[in-house]
Amino acid sequence: MPEFLGVDTSNYTTSAAVYVSEENRIYQMKKLLPVKDGELGLRQSDAVFHHTKQLPDMIEQLCAEHGAHGFAAVSASARPRNLEGSYMPCFLVGEGLARSFAALTDTELHTTSHQVGHILAALYSADRLSLVHEQFIAFHVSGGTTDCLLCSPDSEDVLRIEEVGTSLDLKAGQAVDRVGVMLGLHFPCGAELEKLAAEADRHLKVRPVIKDGSCCLSGLENKCRDMLEKGESPQNIAAYCLDFISAAVIAMTEYAVERHGELPLVFAGGVMSDALIRERIISRFGNASFAEPQFSCDNAAGVAIYGYLKHTGE
Asked: For residues 45 and 73, is the Cβ–Cβ distance under 8 A?
């Protein structure tokens, strides 16, 4: 049966996945890049080193557990976005492996963007993969992006993506990690911050700053630091951080819907795996679709599916 290998080497995670099209099933392996306590990420040279070390082990484990029966195509995320000049060295590791594998085995090769991979993984997880044939609004909210995107079918890239709104300063994932490290949590801080927020005994009022569909989040970090210095509990600060991001995303969504109409809504990216944020958005937009957490955080599933879509022309 046709199988499709996908590789993604982001600034957070090494991941590889196999998509078995006849079963509509994903087999996936992933491992976070190691970050020292108190630090807010890795230099690109260090990320490249860790991917180079982790990816071969991951491919071996994936093939040992799933079995390698020959792949119809191999795909890799080669850039952050499908925009001119979009580049990050860490993606060279996954792209290099995919190119080498394709050349050695005479296998079809496809490259896409990390962003497209995120959106396709969310569509797969939400059982909305058919949306690649129509327009929809997608959010990609992670450590490097806080983007509201108009997605349309594209014969070359599967999805044509136009920015509707973004963060004009700090990205949502950066805000989560900075506030988390401020509170003594481990990077990346999303899961621990969510647990902390669940223990809050009050939720303070938030006022997100929105300018023509884009948000400003730098004030969030400053407010959280001020709250900490004034003795506010870590639990309430965590809740404030997530409430602020929720409100910002909701306001950006309202702007997009007003501008482009009642299109399907899809939310992707690691920040969107947060249950509190998800609940807030669903309470406002009942038609919102979310990926399950394993397909929201950085992953290679959508990259493998991209290879399937390119191979079949679907």
From this structure: no
